[in-house]
Amino acid sequence: MIVNRWKSAAVHAGLVIGLLLSVFPFYWLAVMATRTTSDIYSFPPKLWFGGELGRNVSRVMEGIDFWGAFLNTLFVATVVTLLVLFFDSLAGVTFAKFQFPGSGWLFIVLLATMMAPSQLSLVPSFVIMAKLGWVGSFKALIVPGMVNAFGIFWIRQYAKESIPSELLEAGRMDGCGFFRLYWNVSLPILRPALSFLGAFTFIGVWNDYLWPLIVLTDASKFTLQVALSSLNGIYQTDYAMVIAGALLAVIPLIVFFLFVSRQFISDIAAGAIKS
Fold first, then answer.
1. Residues contacting residue 274 through CB under 8 Å, at least 6 positions apart
2. pLDDT digit string (tens) for 163-179?
3. What does the pLDDT look like over 110-128, one tens digit per residue?
4. DSSP assignment of the chain, as one string?
């Protein structure tokens, strides 16, 4: 009994330490956003909040069109996430539960694309966007990102184990076609997997910097990450202002993650109760 209590205490202590280590970077970001640049360089570091947050935020708003970039990012991230959820779930369910000629080899090719670094596709992707005349438009951000190999692989693995083949066969006997089996039978079962994929995709698109930096040429269409990068000076950078901008960009993600994580847990709990 004493040994079990010690083990439980050790596990809880480890979890608390892990939680503190995970939360500290966000705490440090918030603290530095309320300080001046000289405070950031001070030693020992100041670990409590200062009184410069309002000034730093106002300078961010003066330096860039923050709300315009925010709306651009929200639009792109939302559209890409919805498209990824639709196309990846459609392909994942097909690979998992429907047989067609060459499906095995096609899935292997799909997995092989995950092995290549994404940076290798930047030049070919830009050439394609330029030939289509999409450079400088949101289409260059949305269309290349509306399907990804990881999402198809994730949904395929989840659907293979969670969707009973007997349920699909019963749907066929009732006269359901392919799309109705996907929409009315498969999607409700895939809600936990879709919650994770949606959060993963939205956060990835929101934080994307390199590809928008390459294809966006009009400042009115800049996403948050590209707009915030313009706060860096050529010879001198006000890091307190930059960190305040980064904090403003992170807050919506934290709210979104908290909402999606609650939905993800509730979906898993509902699935466990039904099973």
1. none
2. 888 888 888 888 878 88
3. 888 888 887 888 888 899 9
4. -HHHHHHHHHHHHHHHHHHHHHHHHHHHHHHHHTS-HHHHH-SSPP-S--S-HHHHHHHHHHHS-HHHHHHHHHHHHHHHHHHHHHHHHHHHHHHHH---TTHHHHHHHHHHHHHS-GGGGHHHHHHHHHHHT-TTSTHHHHTTTS--HHHHHHHHHHHHHHS-HHHHHHHHHTT--HHHIIIIIIHHHTHHHHHHHHHHHHHHHHH--HHHHHH---GGG--HHHHHHTTS-SS---HHHHHHHHHHHHHHHHHHHHHHHHHHHHHHHHHHHH-
With a CB cutoff of 8 Å and minimum separation 6, the contacts of 148 are 84, 88, 201
- 234-256 pLDDT, tens digit per residue, is 566 777 888 888 888 888 888 88
User: What fold is seen in the domain 65-230?
Assistant: MetI-like fold (1.10.3720)
> What is the reported pTM?
0.84
The domain locations on the chain are 65-230
- What the block records as the tokens of 112 is 């092989």
